[in-house]
Write a structure and sequence with these properties.
Blueprint lengths: L2 H6 L14 H8 L6 E3 L3 E7 L3 H18 L4 E5 L2 E6 L9 H14 L11 E3 L5 E3 L3
Antiparallel strand pairs: 1-2, 2-4, 3-4, 5-6
Helix pairs in contact: 3-4
């Protein structure tokens, strides 16, 4: 299962009473993510860089919408040109599969949305230019 496969999955409610991931299973899931660090087998961290504050904030807003949709919420530190995301499942005091799913989804929302398609089947570009829509 690659990072894309993780991003396609849904977080499942976790009420506790389940052991946190450790050892081989934890590292197998971590191997499917790019740029994420496993810290003390307790949480995941990644720092994203942006050209300015507005781009960093836009990413945080997109990630926040995904977190709400998934019912799994990261710790987010926002500063000029960077965002640090920390994930762990509080109810079990460590990492669950949900953390890896949301990490993959965070990377997926990093990609900018494609320009909107117009009624004529073209995509709007900068300054109102249009280009043919790929087939």
């Amino acid at each position: 299962m690659a990072q894309d496969d993780l991003a396609a999955r849904r977080c499942k409610p976790c009420e506790g009473g389940v052991a946190a991931l450790a050892g081989g299973e934890l590292h197998r899931l971590a191997g499917r993510l790019e740029g994420w660090s496993v810290v003390d087998e307790h949480h995941l961290e990644k720092e994203y860089r942006f050209k300015d504050f507005a781009d960093a904030l836009a990413f945080v807003n997109r990630l926040g919408a995904v977190a709400e949709e998934e019912g799994h919420h990261p710790d987010v530190f926002l500063a000029w040109g960077k965002v640090k995301v920390t994930l762990w499942t509080h109810s079990i005091g460590g990492l669950s599969e949900n953390d890896f799913i949301l990490a993959a989804k965070a990377d997926a929302v990093l990609a900018p949305a494609p320009p909107p398609t117009t009624a004529a089947g073209t995509r709007s570009g900068p300054a109102g230019s249009t280009s043919p829509r790929p087939g």
